Amino acid sequence: MIRQALSVMFVMISACSAQEPAKPETAEIEYSESLAIDRRDPRLDAIIAPDAKAEIIADGLQWSEGPVWVGGDEDGYLLFSDVPGNRMYKWSRAEGASVFLDPSGAPHDTEGFREPGSNGLIRDASAGSILAAVHGLRAIARLDLETKKYEILADAYEGEPFNSPNDLVLASDGAIYFTDPPYGLEGINDSPLKRQPANGVYRRDASGEVSLLIGDLSFPNGVGLSPDENTLYVAVSDPKRPVILKYDLGADDVQTSATIIHDGSEDVANRKPGLPDGLAVDAHGNLFATAPGGVHIFSPQGDLLGIIDTGVSNANCAIGEGGETLFIAANHEVLRLPLASAHAD
Question: What is the DSSP code string of 251-282?
């Protein structure tokens, strides 16, 4: 296994914009009329109540992504990306939705990028920052929530820049697992800026050393860890192989074989919207994974408990508000769905 130490640097994102930012529409209480829940197993009722309704908390986005809950249960707020819009938004119960960072990555007119902004966002160990996968910076970075400055944590492997990091998850020992498909680049796999031969899944340890864990996937996207951190989940956003995989983690590497826990090929053939994309794991080990047809909910053993059908393609999801809410990045909207009991991430 090849490892590379990376230096840390800081980047200031200027608040300039090539166009007027989108203004997500918010309502006092507006529920999604298209959402339906396909209950496959009675155990789902303990996660999502039978009468649960999803509130629309933001609308009018180009493609919502990377929701992350920040702060306390009562006074916290949600941050999320609009990837094509190159903006990060903030939502709170008191103030609704507003622009938090513009641009959220590299400048809007950065040459060679179709999507230069932020994508996946997750909590950091520090309450005053979050971690972000930023296409235009080609980096995994820490965003200080007060100064709105990025600290670059990893931006290259074996001397070459990453493609466009997409999603990430933080382990308890400070390691960051992240995916690096070329979705942010113009031309995607055919982009002349693509320098990494593999669309890889990487691990950055707490010292800053980066290793390539998985290099044989076409388009790795969402990534997550089981509560005991012995299992790594990876979603593959490939219409030719739309799968969600799990890998058993060893001491410092991934075992050579993967287990498919969901194959969305039939749903793709039936033209159900979406592909395997972002995912979240709750404290009980239940997996919430976007896939063709909606957000699929699996037990820790891999049993499909149900599907949240939003009527559109879904990019990602996150658990917040003390584990009592599932936030869904549903295409042009962000939804807030109450959970039946606390499922803290």
Answer: SSSB-S--EEEEE-HHHHHTT-S--S--EEE-
Enter the DSSP assignment of 106: S
Helix (H) or strand (E) holding 324, with range, is none
Name all domains of the chain by residue range, CATH numbers in brackets: 31-338 (2.120.10.30)
Residue 257 CA: distances (Å) to CA of 29, 213, 278, 303:
47, 12, 22, 20
How many other CB atoms are there within 10 angstroms of residue 205's CB atom? 15
Q: What is the pLDDT of residues 124-174, one digit of tens each?
A: 998 899 999 999 999 999 999 999 999 999 999 999 999 999 999 999 999
Q: Which of 65, 19, 184 is nearest to 113 (CA)?
A: 184
CB 196 within 8 A of CB 188: no
What are the structure tokens assigned to 153, written together?
């944590």
- Per DSSP, the residues of 163-179 read S----EEE-TTS-EEEE
The answer for residues whose C-beta is within 8 angstroms of residue 119's C-beta and 6 or more apart is: 65, 66, 81, 83, 132, 133, 134, 135, 164, 165, 166, 167, 183, 184
Query: What three-state secondary structure class fits 191?
Result: coil
DSSP conformational letter for 188:
G
Instruction: State the pLDDT confidence band at 324, using cuts at 50, 70 and 90.
Output: very high
Dihedral over Cα of 227, 154, 209, 245: its sign: positive
Amino acid at 170: L
